[in-house]
Specification:
single chain; 521 residues; alpha/beta; 7-stranded mixed sheet; 4-stranded antiparallel sheet; 36% helix
């Protein structure tokens, strides 16, 4: 079967695109490597999403985005996004898909503020914004009959020049015809064909030792697109969130920036505020500034973590345990009562500001290949992402790409015949199943290399060391991959080391210290 649209990923970008395409009558297949549809970066977002606010204007939002991004953002993208995107929250999420957002005592949307915003323009559902959006979109997608396959891992994009048995294809423009996909349960790899392939596979956080991302964020879309020959830009700009929970039993848990928006203070281990020594904006400075301040403070004091106190500085009207219910409940399980105790925190890899270069319609540099959400780079974020733009970018990008596909996807004559020239996947004779411990060791090496040499603070020598080590490691992993029975674990490891090499290469090339790419030399 040949679908009109094949979408890889089930976060806000992938699902919003899938819903729009399906409602317009296109045949849509969405795949996710996870066993649960909801497992995505979107599902773990806490703070909120930018929406149209009564006292806001596009020019004000654009200025905040430019300021956070150190003004190297794509001007056209920022201006269009600021003008058109915020109203999509009400039009599509709230009115169309039925997603509910928190309201104040007067029944109006409860707008909150986050760092580097000049207005309270962020709507939320307590601190469960991401899963509220994710669950709402999944329910709506199922309702309208979007075909979603779980436990389906994309292995590689199928390109005409690389995979086709028709020799004439090498003389034509490169096109993507679909993907080879692994059924995680059966171990079978099969080609999935579509007139358009949309990468919505999320971020890259797991190439770092500390991250707020779920374990599925392994840079799959970036690596697959790069192997196919697509352009990757701004890969040096990895945003580190200042406040991830530091706890021996609870990993990957974000402490939302919205706590600082509601008054929370960062403290040293003795309980003293310190942010004003680093920036006049203190806790409300852009994320890269706050993350570096924490890094420097921890380095100076020689401590493993710092503290975030909401209990003694809260400015909100709702009880803390209700306004931040997810954080309250999670910390409570770890023995921390945030209504009384400060929260131990550390910075962690959070959001990839670079990605696959796309235009306003999500088109990549390869025909029939599109990218949306965190795996794409529209130039919106520049050198650093403004808080709460990510969910809105995913929504807006997904809808923009869907709008283009609805108007331009047609059943082309001869397309099926071209797909017939794509061979079945062949597992090499004598392929081995490798021990999980070997894969774990390789993962640990990648994570430590990236954290130590391509993390919050970078140096030329450190980056060159990382490049040398990762190149050697990538060679070993590629050999490993070619001899292995295909599994999700080995596919993710291959993608991760390739993505790590891309980040380091871009970081070496950009000698300017700017935004979340901070170089000492």
């Amino acid at each position: 079967m040949i679908n009109d649209v094949l979408i890889i990923g089930t976060g806000i970008a992938g699902l919003s695109s899938a819903i729009s395409c399906r409602e317009a009558g296109l045949s849509v297949l969405v795949i996710t490597k996870n066993s649960k549809i909801e497992e995505s970066n979107t599902n773990y977002a806490q703070g909120g999403i930018i929406a149209s606010a009564p006292d806001d204007k596009p020019e004000l939002l654009a200025k905040d985005i430019f300021d956070a991004g150190c003004t190297i953002n794509c001007c056209e993208t920022v201006e269009r996004f600021s003008r058109e995107a915020p109203q999509k929250v009400k039009e599509f999420l709230s009115d169309h898909a039925g997603v509910f957002f928190s309201r104040n005592k007067d029944g109006e949307l409860d707008y909150t503020e986050e760092a580097a915003h000049s207005r309270r323009r962020i709507v939320h559902f307590e601190d469960h914004t991401g899963d509220a959006i994710e669950n709402g979109l999944v329910l709506y997608a199922k309702k309208i009959g979007v075909n979603i396959s779980t436990d389906c891992t994309a292995v590689d994009l199928i390109t005409t020049d690389h995979h086709s048995t028709d020799a004439q294809e090498k003389y034509r423009e490169r096109e993507v015809l679909g993907v080879y996909a692994l059924n995680n349960k059966t171990g079978q790899v099969e080609p999935l064909f579509a007139h358009a392939v949309v990468l919505a596979s999320g971020g890259i956080g797991n190439i770092y030792q500390f991250t707020t991302n779920p374990s599925c964020a392994t840079g799959d879309g970036i690596a697959m697109a790069s192997r196919a020959g697509a352009d990757i830009i701004n890969a040096e700009f990895m945003q580190f969130h200042p406040t991830a929970l530091f706890h021996k039993d609870i990993k990957r848990f974000l402490i939302s920036e919205s706590l600082r928006g509601e008054g929370a203070k960062l403290l040293d281990p003795q309980g003293k505020p310190f942010m004003e020594r680093y920036t006049p904006q203190a806790e409300l400075a852009p994320r890269d500034v706050v993350a570096r301040a924490l890094y420097e403070e921890m380095s100076t004091l020689g401590c493993e973590y710092l503290l975030l106190d909401i209990a003694n500085y809260y400015r909100g009207t709702e009880p803390i345990e209700k306004r931040f219910s997810r954080i309250y409940e999670t910390c409570k399980k770890g023995g921390i009562d945030i209504t009384k105790d400060p929260i131990p925190i550390v910075p962690a890899a959070h959001y990839f500001c670079g990605g696959i270069r796309v235009n306003a319609q999500g088109q990549t540099s390869i025909k029939r290949l599109y990218a949306v959400g965190e795996t794409a780079c529209t130039g919106l974020h520049g050198a650093n992402r403004l808080a709460s733009t990510s969910l809105l970018e995913g929504l807006y990008g997904g809808l923009q790409t869907a709008s283009y596909l609805i108007k331009n996807t047609v059943q082309e004559e001869g397309f099926a015949k071209r797909c017939e020239c794509i061979p079945d996947w062949k597992i090499p004779a004598g392929a081995e199943t490798f021990e999980p411990s070997l894969i774990y060791q390789d993962w640990k090496y990648i994570k430590l290399t990236m954290w130590n040499h391509a993390g919050i603070v970078r140096t030329r020598k450190g980056l060159e060391r990382a490049q040398s080590d990762l190149n050697y490691h990538a060679h070993r992993i590629t050999s490993f991959y070619r001899e292995a029975v295909p599994t999700r674990d080995i596919i993710e490891l291959r993608n991760a080391v390739e993505t790590a090499r891309i980040v380091v290469s871009h970081a070496i090339h950009n000698e300017q210290s700017i935004g979340c790419h901070y170089r000492k030399n």
